Amino acid sequence: MKLESFLLEILVCPQCRAALTEGGGEEQPELVCTGESCGLVYPVRDGIPVLLVDEARRPA
């Protein structure tokens, strides 16, 4: 499921306020923080981004 482009323009990482980009695949979509010092990966569940730091994971 692809997120609308206008939504990606306004969403930021709640940890560091950097922009987010789409990652993952169709089966497990994710939003990835572009901040060099942060890099958290947030899940997207049922088309809804879960922007909670406690739900995010560090990149592998």
Automatic annotation (TrEMBL):
It comes from the Bacteria. It holds the Pfam family Trm112p. InterPro entries: Trm112-like. Belongs to the UPF0434 family. This is UPF0434 protein ACFP3U_36180. It comes from Kitasatospora misakiensis.
